Amino acid sequence: MKGKQIMFIGDSVSINQCESLVCFLHSAVPQSQITQQTTGSITNYTFQDYGVSVIVFHTLFLVDIEEEKIGRVLKLDSLKDGEIWKNMDVLVFNTWLWWYRRGPKQPWDYIQVGGKIIKDMDRMAAFKMGLTTWANWVNAEVNTTRTQVLFQGVSPSHYNGSGWDHPEVTNCSRETQPISGSTYPGGLPQAAYVVMDELKKITKPVHLLNITTLSQLRKDAHPSSYNGFKGMDCTHWCIAGLPDTWNELLYAAITN
Ligand SMILES: *[C@@H]1O[C@H](CO)[C@@H](O)[C@H](O)[C@H]1NC(C)=O
Ligand SMILES: *[C@@H]1O[C@H](CO)[C@@H](O)[C@H](O)[C@H]1NC(C)=O
Ligand SMILES: *[C@@H]1O[C@H](CO)[C@@H](O)[C@H](O)[C@H]1NC(C)=O
Ligand SMILES: *[C@@H]1O[C@H](CO)[C@@H](O)[C@H](O)[C@H]1NC(C)=O
């Protein structure tokens, strides 16, 4: 990993994994100085003695949201930030969490597809189109001899106990045990199939960090009410927990 720049690109789950990797590396080399710098949507942690930078680029959809006269427009065909991303050694992409947000939590007012501006559309179809734009960008723009590309599979949340045969459960507050065995009763979420389909369209080597099922089994691994803010967090993961496992898989993939 020496001299490498690793960039996580995505929503707060990417920040979660990035923080976990920084802690993980710090515990391996506790004496090494780390500098942290934040500029706009980019936070960069550099391990001075090793020339290793772990960077997180915060973006909710990978594709662009632009402020226009009519309001904020989610542009499913446009991916301008790629110009920054393609200079890195390792890229770890993720997007899913925000595609179904509505009301005040929806960070756009319109969707643009091709030349058309619309008020809304089927969200799974929008997710698929956004990923297609990303896949086309990888095919056209990324030099995969220089830059390794990974996609972090869908990170599951645990607000619906139907997934583990407890339909009465509506959050993870009382979950203290993983699901035993290696099969999640609820199966893979539909979004995971969309991700796998989109990755097949990429002709260049792209590695799927296939973390969905192993994370579905860990209903006990969320911050729940111990998250430092109000409410119940069954979406993110405790640092020094499950994301360390993701990072072990990441490490295996990038040193192979
Ligand atoms: C891709 O990167 C490799 C390794 O750095 C380099 O040798 C090659 O010229 C690059 N290809 C293009 C098309 O830039
Ligand atoms: C929980 O999941 C089940 C099975 O997928 C679904 O029928 C139900 O509507 C979901 N409940 C909520 C509150 O979303
Ligand atoms: C979480 O679920 C418990 C029961 O399992 C319930 O008592 C509590 O109200 C729920 N909390 C939230 C914030 O939904
Ligand atoms: C990812 O893992 C799941 C569960 O083990 C499996 O069903 C799926 O085929 C895997 N996907 C790929 C692309 O390997």
From TrEMBL:
Pfam families: PC-Esterase
InterPro entries (alphabetical): TBL (IPR029962), TBL_C (IPR026057)
GO molecular function: O-acetyltransferase activity
Domain Trichome birefringence-like C-terminal: 1-252
GO CC list: Golgi apparatus
Family: Belongs to the PC-esterase family. TBL subfamily.
Name this polypeptide is given: Protein trichome birefringence-like 38
